[in-house]
Structures are given as C-alpha cells and as structure tokens.
C-alpha cells in the first residue's frame, strides 16, 4: 500500500481549481490535496509549510506565472514535481518549462479524470520515498482535518476511517467554533486556510500542530487569522480540560473558518465561558472578527447538518445584525414571534386614494419589524421589498421614471449586504414617489398624520426636539418624514419648529417681564445668542427691540 502523495493546485481561476478538486476521488487513489493558490507567489509562500510532492500549475497567471514558479520550485525544492496545465495557444510556454525540469503537462481542453489520474500516477513514480506505509493503515495516513473535511462535504467514511476518527476524538460532545471578518469583503474568496490539527495521544495529552496554509487574502486578514489561531488555541485549551480541536478545511465563500471542538459534555459551561473570553480578547483587532459557536451535538454524523444550521444563522446575522460580533447558536433553534402578514389590499386602496403618508407609514412600521427579527429570512425579506416596489410601480404606471427604474431597484435590493442598505433603497424610492405625485400639496393639516405631527410639535416645542426623535416617536423613517413634512406643510421641519418657537417667544415678550434669556430657554433654545439670531430672522426685530415695540399688547 502506497503512502499518501500530497498535491498543491495553482490556478488563478477558482472554477478551474474547483474542477480539479472534484474530478477525482483523490484519497481513494492515494493522493491528498493539501492546498491551493491563485498565483505562483502564493504557491511559493506555502511550500515550506505544505511540502507537497506534486504541484499542478497553470501557465498564465497574475503576479507570478507558472513558468517562473516552475523555475523557482526546481531550484529551491528539487524533489517536488511539477505538472503544467495549458491551452493550445500557450504551448510555447510549456516547452520552456521542460527546460526547468517539469514532469509532465495536461492540456486544459483534455482535462478529465482518466487523463489526470494517469499523469499523476506516472509522476508519483518519479518521487523517492512514496513506497511503503511504515505500518500505517490507509486511514491513519490521512490527516484528521482531511477526514473531517470529507465528512463535511457529505462523504461517508469507510469503517476503518470512522474508527480512526473516533480514536482521535474520544469525547462524547462536539461543537463548531467559527470566525470570519465582521464585514466580509466582496469577491467571495476564503480569506483563511489556516489548519490546526489537534490529535490526542495514548496518554490523553493534546498535541496541537498549527499548519499555515496558503491564503488568497490581504496581509491584514492573514494577520487577523493568525491572531485568532493563537488566541483560540490558548484560551480554549487553558479553560476546557481535555479539549481536542481541529480546523476543518472547507471553501467558505464568506471567509469563515470552522474548528471542530471535542469535549466532555460536563465541560460545556467552561467552553461557553471561554468563547466569551475569547471574544473579549479579540475585540479591537485591526480586522474586526465575528465569532460563532454552534449548538453542541453528540455524533459526527450531524457535522454537516450543524454547519448548515450555523451558516444559516450567520447569513441572518450578516444581513440583519452586521454589528454583532459574537453569535452563539442556542441548543434549540429560536422560533421567534410570528409577525402578522402585511395586508396588501388596504395598502393598495390607500395608494389609489393618494393617501401616501398613511400607506407608507404602515409599510415602514412593518418593514422595521421584519428587520428586527432574530430569525428573519434574508430571501423572504428581500422578496417582500421587491414585491412592494412592483405593486407600487404598477399603481403609478403612468409615471415613466418609476417604470423604467424598477428593475434597477430589484437588482439593488437583491445585492444589498444588510437590511439597513435594503431599507435605505426603499426609503429613497418612496421619497421619490412623494415628490412626483404630491407636487400639488394639499393645505396643512388636511392629512391625518400631518395633523398629529403638528399637534405634537405644538405641545413639545420647548423640548430638545429633533427630526430623528420625532420620526422615532411616530415610527417613521427620518428621510421619509422630512419629505412628508415639506410636502404637506410647505416648509421643512426645522423651519416650522422655529416658527412655532419664535411665535411663542413673541407672546411671552408681549405679555410679561420675564428676562429674555429665560424666555429663550422656555421656548426650547439652549443657546441665547442663537435664539436672538433666529428670532430676528422670523420677526424682523431682536427680542429686546420687539419687547420695546410690542410690550403690553397681550
């Protein structure tokens, strides 16, 4: 039985790398993919750690191409064999790589399982030391993280491999700890391929081997991941007796790295406390990270299902609570409080009657409630917003601008990274409708909501009133409320508040002997000089001049 032959894949196209990874049952054929890189420079940086026997590399790549990579590999790692991938048009590059000692080449159009396996086996025969197992079984020749990665991908391990995994993970309780950038960078490439292989020896002592694997991320993300590895290894091992931990290699598009934790069930509270402490330790890092801890489970057969649950919770957290940096999945999924469905019929009737303030006010309250759900569904949330825009646009189909722009809005909402971004898109859309449809504004007070707003200002003008506070009190969005106020009242919120306040101040100046500084405070102005400036703007005289001219007229 031959020992495992380690392979590194190098190609700037992620689809090509994925195709190579899944075209063969690598372990069954005696090979193991130990890493991947997007260019020659990344591959070189990982060789010392990964020590692959074979490199499969593309020719044309950014940063460092395959020809340069081959030359440097054969200079510094002469025992490592190189297989070149190329297209027909690049064959002149392939000829030059043979001068540097490339083992073989494969044309990309001919890349299929049989041809690749033939070249791999032929190349393996050139490598000394790959005969004989040294007493290891086939299962023992594979690292723990590789076996767990296969389980995570849905493969069922053969009985001898399952027994080997159980030997390395002896405790009855498992959990998944994950970390990722709190604001994932667009592009989808995983930022961290750091693997921690933790195995337990016969004397029950843990030996953690940290292997730095190739990364396609910026240096800052690499540094952050290294910090996490160090902190996780230290904090968990120190706090949870007998704990075994192993990072699972998986291509998470968000950049999430998952670590499997194996512990005694009685030590669950210590794990929870350690994760909270870990979050405190990592707080304030240059690259802010989000930590996640799954529910505990008792069988590795649940591994894939638990990761899917964790990913679903992560997706919700990224969208609805992007600021949350510690996410602990409850033992029982939170069902939440079912919200009533939005009643589209009265909403449509209000649109037909041009009662936009009432319709949009109800809509904002419902959308705000949807965005505050702990277990909200991202797809359903975006679908609801898209459906609302579709229905509103149909009601105002005579407005060509809305009809032409709706598909752009659908795309923008679909691409929104957070609920806040999606709601902002909706707010701008509703404000634009108000501008287009209510140019002929009705008289002040003819709208029920407007009447309530004006009455509230009349009763609370002496308080430190702001548009944001008013919007929060009436459950409106501030930008929408500003547009509504201007439309129905012929002046903005700030202008109207100043009108009310200076009017009340004029009454006090005419009626009594209260000091002007006291009057400014009584009508809501904390700054006396600012009050005098605003009063003169609205009344044509300074407060003292107004009092001299109008005193005693009340």
From TrEMBL:
Pfam families to which the protein is assigned, alphabetical: HTH_18, Response_reg
Keywords: DNA-binding, Phosphoprotein, Transcription, Transcription regulation
Matches recorded under CDD domains: REC_YesN-like
Matches recorded under InterPro entries: CheY-like_superfamily (IPR011006), Homeodomain-like_sf (IPR009057), HTH_AraC (IPR018060), Sig_transdc_resp-reg_receiver (IPR001789), Tscrpt_reg_AraC-type_HTH (IPR020449)
Residue span(s) of domain Response regulatory: 6-123
Domain HTH araC/xylS-type residue range list: 451-549
Residues with 4-aspartylphosphate modification: 58
Gene3D superfamilies, per the entry: 3.40.50.2300, Homeodomain-like
Protein name per its UniProtKB record: Response regulator
Protein species of origin: Paenibacillus rhizoplanae
């Amino acid at each position: 039985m031959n020992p495992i032959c380690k392979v590194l894949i190098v190609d700037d196209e992620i689809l090509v790398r994925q195709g190579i990874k899944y075209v063969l049952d690598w372990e069954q054929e005696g090979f193991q993919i130990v890493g991947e890189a997007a260019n020659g420079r990344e591959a070189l940086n990982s060789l010392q750690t990964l020590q692959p026997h074979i490199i499969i590399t593309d020719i044309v790549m950014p940063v460092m191409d395959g020809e340069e990579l081959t030359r440097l590999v054969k200079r510094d790692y002469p025992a490592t064999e190189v297989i070149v991938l190329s297209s027909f048009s690049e064959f002149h590059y392939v000829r030059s790589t043979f001068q540097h000692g490339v083992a073989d080449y494969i044309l990309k159009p001919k890349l299929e399982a049989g041809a690749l396996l033939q070249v791999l086996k032929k190349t393996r025969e050139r490598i000394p030391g790959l005969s004989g197992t040294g007493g290891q079984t086939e299962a023992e020749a594979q690292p723990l993280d590789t076996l767990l990665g296969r389980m995570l991908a849905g493969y069922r391990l053969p009985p001898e491999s399952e027994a080997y995994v159980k030997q390395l993970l002896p405790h009855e309780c498992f959990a998944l700890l994950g970390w990722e950038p709190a604001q994932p960078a667009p592009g989808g490439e995983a930022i961290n391929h750091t693997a921690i292989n933790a195995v337990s020896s016969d004397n029950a002592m843990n030996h953690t081997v940290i292997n730095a694997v190739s990364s396609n991320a910026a240096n800052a993300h690499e540094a952050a991941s290294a910090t996490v590895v160090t902190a996780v290894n230290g904090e968990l091992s120190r706090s949870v007796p007998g704990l075994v931990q192993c990072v699972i290699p998986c291509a998470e598009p968000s950049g999430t790295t998952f670590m499997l934790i194996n512990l005694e069930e009685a030590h669950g509270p210590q794990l929870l406390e350690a994760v909270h402490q870990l979050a405190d330790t990592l707080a304030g890092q240059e690259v802010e990270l989000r930590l996640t801890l799954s529910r505990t489970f008792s069988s590795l057969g649940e591994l894939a299902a638990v990761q899917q649950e964790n990913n679903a919770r992560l997706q919700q957290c990224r969208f609805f609570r992007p600021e949350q940096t510690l996410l602990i999945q409850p033992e029982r999924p939170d069902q939440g409080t079912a919200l009533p469905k939005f009643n589209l019929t009265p909403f449509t009737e209000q649109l037909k009657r041009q009662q936009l303030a009432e319709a949009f006010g109800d809509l904002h309250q419902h959308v705000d409630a949807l965005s505050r759900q702990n277990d909200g569904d991202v797809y359903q949330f975006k679908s609801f917003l898209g459906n609302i825009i579709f229905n509103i646009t149909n009601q105002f189909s005579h407005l060509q601008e809305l009809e032409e722009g709706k598909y752009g809005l659908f795309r923008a909402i679909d691409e929104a990274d957070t609920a806040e971004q999606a709601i902002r898109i909706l707010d701008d859309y509703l404000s634009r409708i108000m501008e287009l449809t209510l140019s002929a504004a009705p008289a002040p007070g003819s709208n029920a909501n407007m009447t309530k707003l004006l009455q509230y200002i009349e009763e609370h003008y002496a308080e430190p009133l702001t548009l944001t506070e008013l919007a929060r009190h009436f459950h409106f969005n501030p930008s929408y409320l500003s547009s509504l106020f201007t439309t129905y009242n012929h002046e903005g919120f700030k202008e109207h508040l100043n009108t009310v306040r200076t009017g009340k101040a004029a009454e006090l100046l005419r009626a009594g002997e209260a000091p002007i500084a006291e009057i400014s405070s009584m009508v809501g102005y904390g700054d006396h000089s600012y009050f005098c400036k605003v009063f003169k703007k609205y009344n044509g005289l300074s407060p003292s001049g107004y009092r001299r001219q109008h005193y005693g007229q009340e």
